[in-house]
Amino acid sequence: MITTVRYAVGSVIVGIIVFLLKYVAYAVTGSAALYSDALESIINIVAAGAAVVALRVSAMPADENHPYGHHKAEYFSAVLEGVLIVIAALAIFREAAQTFFELHTLNAPLRGLLLNAAATVINAVWAGVLVRQGRRVKSPALVADGRHLYADVVTSVGVFAGVVLVGLTGWLWLDPTIAILVAINILWSGWQLVRESVGGLMDEAVSENELNRIRTAIFHHSEGAYQAHDLRTRHAGRRTFIDFHLVVPGNMSVDEAHVICDRLEAAIEDEVADSTVTIHVEPEDKAKVSNVYLPQ
């Protein structure tokens, strides 16, 4: 968790550097498109700060009021980032609308483009680091931050191309038009983040691929039991909760059943990192014919 927080703090630092570069690019050119790009960087800084707080909260151990831990705190960070993205998009729409009525020639476009390009390269590299590390440690906050930066990179490339066109063609209306297109792309990115984060808050099950791995682990490590059934899963931040019913012979001792459960828990935890497994042991008269995963 300490490493995860460090990456989030790194996002704040990178966000500040990128914002300064993009704002100077806007200041020297007066471009509405470059202004929209700089404004999104402010959202990156705020969102990264929120991720730092969320990651610290999610690392807190379980307590009396939160017996399952604080893992879902990361989803609130991702939702907040989505909301901030929407606010940024609305601000860009406003600036673009004003620019349409006050069209002006861009100043020093080459210098502004070089500054913006440098900021874009920094964002692209850091976005790759965040998504890769976020997936490795199963951190929704880091993955959301990385994906947001990827969206920022895409819009920055579009802005770069658009401002070049403005300089080559003299079509000043292209500048606010590009800003509007950037805002639309930002809105879509925000919607995607909010939708995925709400899914996590609503206890979405694991992916089909992960579910099949869990079923396989149960199948190959439940020797001595009759069957397993009613498998359920849910995500809570990096933590995955898994529970199912295990049917054993009615005359099996508690110690013997416990050995099977320990073997199953170890096998599943090897397949699914950061998982919590709960097994409900039942006698053979509780066997079912549906939702069943038979042992060897």
From TrEMBL:
Keyword Isomerase among record annotations: no
**Topology class, membrane:** Multi-pass membrane protein
GO CC entries:
plasma membrane
**Any matching Pfam family:** Cation_efflux
Q: Write out the entry's keywords from A to Z.
A: Cell membrane, Ion transport, Iron, Iron transport, Membrane, Transmembrane, Transmembrane helix, Transport, Zinc, Zinc transport
Major site of localization recorded for this protein: membrane
Span of domain Cation efflux protein transmembrane: 11-202
Give the molecular function GO annotations. Answer: cadmium ion transmembrane transporter activity; ferrous iron transmembrane transporter activity; zinc efflux antiporter activity
Q: Which Gene3D superfamilies match?
A: Cation efflux protein transmembrane domain (1.20.1510.10), Cation efflux protein, cytoplasmic domain (3.30.70.1350)
**Cation efflux protein cytoplasmic domain mapped to chain residues:** 207-284
The reply on keyword Cell cycle is no
- Ranges that cross the membrane: 7-26, 32-55, 75-93, 113-132, 153-172
Gene Ontology annotations of biological process type: intracellular zinc ion homeostasis
Q: Where in the cell is it found?
A: Cell membrane
Record family assignment:
Belongs to the cation diffusion facilitator (CDF) transporter (TC 2.A.4) family. FieF subfamily.
Q: What is this protein called?
A: Cation efflux family protein, CzcD-like protein
Give the taxonomic lineage as stored in the record.
Bacteria, Pseudomonadati, Pseudomonadota, Gammaproteobacteria, Salinisphaerales
